[in-house]
Amino acid sequence: MKLSLKSLLPSRDLGWNRVRAVCALASCHNKLLIRYVPGSRVGIFVGASWYCSADCFAQASRVNLASLSTETVVEMPRNPRLTLGLALLAKGYLDEEQLRFAVSRSEREGQNLETTLVECGLATDKQVAAARAAQWGYPVLGQDAASQSVEADLPPALLRAFSAAPLHYSPKARRLVLGFVYRVEHSLLQSIEQITGFRAEPCFITPTEFHEQMERLTAVPGYEEAVFENPGTITQMARTLGGFAIEVAAREAGFSKCGSWVWIRLAGKQGTVDVIFAMKGAFAAPKARLSTMLPEITERLG
User: Fold this and answer.
1) What is the average pLDDT score of the chain?
2) Which domain range does residue 139 map to?
3) For the chain, what is the domain count?
4) At residue 150, does pLDDT exceed 70?
5) What are the pLDDT digits (tens) for 73-91?
6) Which of 93-97, 213-217, 297-301 has the lowest mean pLDDT?
7) Do 189 and 63 belong to one domain?
8) Are residues 208 and 291 in the same domain?
9) Which of 36, 70, 104 represents a domain boundary (last residue)?
10) Which helix H or strand E contains 275, and what residues bound it?
């Protein structure tokens, strides 16, 4: 059988001169043929856009990186109606006198209310988690869900930054149960859905359960995380992505902004890497809110 070079090209003949007809980078200088010759790099998809090489992908990524780096994530106010103290009171874990004492002391000492409550023996971590769940309208971790090992391709840096641990991860059902310690961080939930396509369902856990669950978390085979505390300029970040794209022979890439972090996933023939760029303030330790609701609580308690 006689083969010709033309038989290797797509059925839609784009012509030899239209070398940039497919690559989404307008300044691409590569030949269109590299996409179709057996053994050549097949390019990288970012959504519906296709880039013929890691170089073109890296150059184009500067636009996404610049947008995400300067973007201010504005979440709709999702503050609970009840303060933590009133939620504990409503559940019967505290009486009015204990709550007044704890709020007064936390204000005086500059502590979080829950820290004061636990240190003074007025509430347990489990009771605080249950009160947070009541505040936010989400469930608290059940005993049957505790102490389960989880294998997942999620970046530990982001999980620790938002004090959230995966409790259940099902690739088949594309479902994730994520346990939060302090508050439900919707930017993390949205980023997980954007990057992985998984539906993330939140619940509340104690600080101890968080640390224990993170110890049980293992990465799926072929997954790695690369965190850059000082990512440099947009051009340097783009070059970093280009290097990782070559390393994993990337075929797909996804971009997301998660709080003060930029999360890029590169998936290819050699595995999957999550590149995490820390923007300003990303490494600030997550803290529970300091209660400043003493006047409101005092008024409600009469």
Assistant:
1) 82
2) 78-302
3) 2
4) yes
5) 555 456 667 788 889 998 9
6) 297-301
7) no
8) yes
9) 70
10) strand 271-278
Assess whether 57 and 91 both reside in one domain.
no
Q: Are residues 93 and 217 in the same domain?
A: yes
143, 51: one domain: no
Distance CA(125)–CA(110), nearest Å, equals 19
Where are the extended beta strands (E) located within 15-172?
Answer: 44-46, 49-51, 150-152, 164-170
The helix (H) or strand (E) run that includes residue 226 is: strand 223-228
In order of 74, 187, 262, the CA distances from 258 in angstroms are 11, 5, 6
- CB-based contacts of 13: which residues, under 8 Å, 6+ apart? none
DSSP 230-262: S--SHHHHHHHHHHHHHHTTEEEEEEEEETTEE
110: left (phi over 0), alpha (psi -120 to 50) or beta: left
Q: For residue 289, what are its two tokens?
A: 């809110």
Strands 199-204 and 175-180: parallel
Residue 239 vs residue 149, higher pLDDT: 239
Residue carrying the six token digits 């505790």: 146
Q: Which of 35, 70, 105 finishes a domain?
A: 70
Same domain, 127 and 23: no
| 267: helix, strand or coil | strand
Cα Rg for the chain, rounded, in angstroms? 25
pLDDT at residue 185 above 60?
yes
CATH of the domain at 124: 3.30.300.160
Across the range 2-19, mean pLDDT stands at 42
